[in-house]
Specification:
It is built from four helices and seven strands. The protein has 240 residues and is α+β, with helices and mostly antiparallel strands. The longest helix has 24 residues. Helix content is 28%, strand content 20%.
Length: 240
Amino acid sequence: MSVDMLSHFGGLDELIQVIYQGFDRFVVLSQVNDSAWTVYLGLKGPEGRWWRGSWSEKEITQLIGSKASSRVVENFADKLSETFVNGELSVGDWIPDHGARINLTVGPTSKKPLHVPLVELSPTEAASNATALLSEIALQAQSRKCRLNPATFSAPTATTAGPSRAAPARGAEPAPAAPPADQEAQRKIMALEAELAEVKATTVGEPDQKVATSARPPKGASLANPHKKARKYQPVEFED
């Protein structure tokens, strides 16, 4: 039983990638239909040149074998899609001459790169292809309010100076009052604090009632040294 090769190539449909090669920049567009996998290559520049290449189901069968299972074909297509998305692409045998045989190389650094031969389109075909691509871009932009690129900025938010308190929700009930027991305890605490403050006010700044008095030496003590007894002197008597 033969396998429908292109039914597994849906992951390659409507892919677009950019190739930077030297000073040139290319855009690559991938499309899949019932008859072939087709790639379009456009060169950025004043001439607007385009190339086209494709793999038919017959060419795909010759590449991977007629006896390949559906799983093998699916893995092959997934690998092509992954390589495309990762940008592992290059323009093979590139020269800018008209009529030159160039190709799209898929996986240029891999052990077995794949090549899709490209043929240059006429100016009319190139213009038609570019217009079709722009039409697709315009359709995609409608979901972004007709912007070519997605908006990269967000709407500014209003700010107020200083901290603000969140307003209570509309209809929210006020916090319940404290029970009577708690109120009574609070009143007792306040009364004790008031009494304590009054006691402190009466004691702070009160002069000390004990006034230091000058100590008098005990009777009979020496004036020079109060702790010693004074010496007694007897009057000196002279004989006539």
